[in-house]
Amino acid sequence: MAAIGLTLVGLAPPIAVILAYYGLLFVVAAFLLRVPRGALAAGAVLACVLTPVASQLLRAGLPEGPGDQVGWAALGAPGDALVTLAVNGYYPVLTWTTYLLAGMAVGRLDLRRPQVAAGLLVGGGVLAVAAHTLSGLLLGPGDGVWVLGAEAAARRFGTTPTGSWWWLAVDGPHSGSTLDLAATTGSALAVLGAMLLLAGWSRRLVLVPAALGSAPLTLYTLHVVAMAYYGGSGDDDVACGWATCWWPRSSGWACRSRGCAARWRRWSRRRAVRRVES
After folding, report:
1. What is the pTM of this model?
2. What gap in Å lies between CA 233 and CA 212, rounded to an integer?
3. pLDDT tier, 254 (very low <50, low <70, confident <90, very high otherwise)
4. What pLDDT, in 10s, does the model give residues 63-95?
């Protein structure tokens, strides 16, 4: 997977390729396979709280991220590449270990039980709402926004600045703060619980997402390649090439039909890219 990601970066796509980060996360996961579910869940909580603090401390003496994407050429300086992937890149493994631990803990549950699905839906929703609410309180009545200024609402790309501990209170997407990790973990758990409940009621209701989710590496690779060759300039406000406008709209329209989803599910069982990778 990491090799595919390094190769895709060489195409210079207008998006941040995540596969090399996943490759490093899988290395971490290999050491956690025999860890009990309770320990994984506790580890996820600790990682959510502590890894953003560790990130702030470690990045204090480093260049501001995310820097250049890590491709094959970056391996000429393996230490720098590892620092980018682990600490200050687009999807830093240090903080994203929270997602890894939470996902592995959930994977040990009996997801066929409706009670488990309902617990994920309710618990995840409460966690997400609580995280966003706490961030609002800290930045508003807590005066954090006055310290951070307009930068508090700026778009982030994996990390936040290190000049103030108030950055741990933001909940912006890809900020990597404690509250961002908590909110995104909660929303992911809620969506998973909702999909499990829908699947238990009628599998046809989740036919399309289940079909697409059966070959994520293949679809992601095709998407990055399409973005690299047809994605326009990459400016979110301007670019509207084949990959950024026409393809998602056409694909979304096509996948609304159950017949299309069923055919895609049969094809996707081949998992083309993963088969080649194996």
Report:
1. 0.84
2. 27
3. very low
4. 887 888 999 999 999 999 999 999 999 999 999
- Residues 60 and 163: their CA atoms lie apart, in Å, by 8
Could you give the CA distance from residue 41 to residue 102 in angstroms, rounded to a whole number?
6
- Residue 42: partners with Cβ closer than 8 Å, 6 or more residues away: none
Q: Residue 182 is which amino acid?
A: A
Torsion from C-alpha of 259, 263, 264, 266, nearest 10 degrees: 140
Please state, in angstroms and rounded to a whole number, the distance separating the CA atoms of residues 262 and 109.
Answer: 28
Peptide bond preceding 66 in cis form (omega within 30 of 0): yes
∠ CA 100-103-105, rounded to 5°: 110
Whether 40 contacts 32, CB under 8 Å: yes
Location of structure tokens 């998407």: 223
- DSSP one-letter code for 84: I
Residue 214 CA: distances (Å) to CA of 127, 252, 271, 273:
27, 17, 7, 12
